[in-house]
Amino acid sequence: MRQYTLQDDGDPIEKKYYSQFLKDRFPSYEAFWRSFIAPLTKRPTDIRFKEDADLEAIGKGHHDICVAQLHYTILLHLARCFEIMNAKPVTDDGVLHALTALCGAQDIAFELLQRLETPKEYDPWKEGKDARIKWQKKRTILYN
């Protein structure tokens, strides 16, 4: 089986930010993408998700699609922060937007991690606030 890379097989956003910050600042991003995202797609011919029957044939399903979508949303938040960080000059509004994007990335990461830990507990097509809160409560002193 071919080993996919973000640089060669990612979508335009993934390719752009791979070289700009993902490779150096988030070195495990590509390994996660390769293991959890790329197999769900029709790569190398198409980056869109496989149909349900094709997903089922590889032991994947809607839960995995949900995780992939959360993963991509985290990338978009981090990309927004990267763009703001490199803007000249960085404005007060830019700092506010960057902090908001970081909070969003964190919330989504907590949801993604809880969904990975307990994949059958949450409906993949419903908002994951409960998953995020459960992850935080188990791991944050503020909730204990």
Describe this structure in words.
By secondary structure, the protein is mostly helical. It has one domain. The chain contains 7 helices and no strands. The longest helix is centred in the last third of the chain and has 26 residues, at 92-117.
Attribute tags:
mainly alpha, flat, 7 helices, 144 residues
Q: Which helices and strands, and how do they pair?
A:
Layout: H1 6-9, H2 12-25, H3 29-37, H4 52-57, H5 62-85, H6 92-117, H7 129-139
Helix pairs in contact: 2-5, 5-6, 6-7
Largest sheet data: none
Please write the string of helix (H) and strand (E) elements: HHHHHHH
Mass-distribution shape: flat
User: What is the total tally of β strands?
Assistant: 0
Determine the mean pLDDT. Answer: 93
What percentage of residues falls in helices of 4 or more residues?
A: 55-70%
Q: Which percent range describes the beta-strand content?
A: under 5%
Low-confidence segments, given as residue ranges, are none
Structural domain tally: 1
**What gap, in angstroms, lies between the N and C termini?**
46 Å
Structural class by secondary-structure content: mainly alpha
Query: Helix tally?
Result: 7
Give the C-alpha Rg.
17 Å
In short:
The chain has 7 helices and no strands.
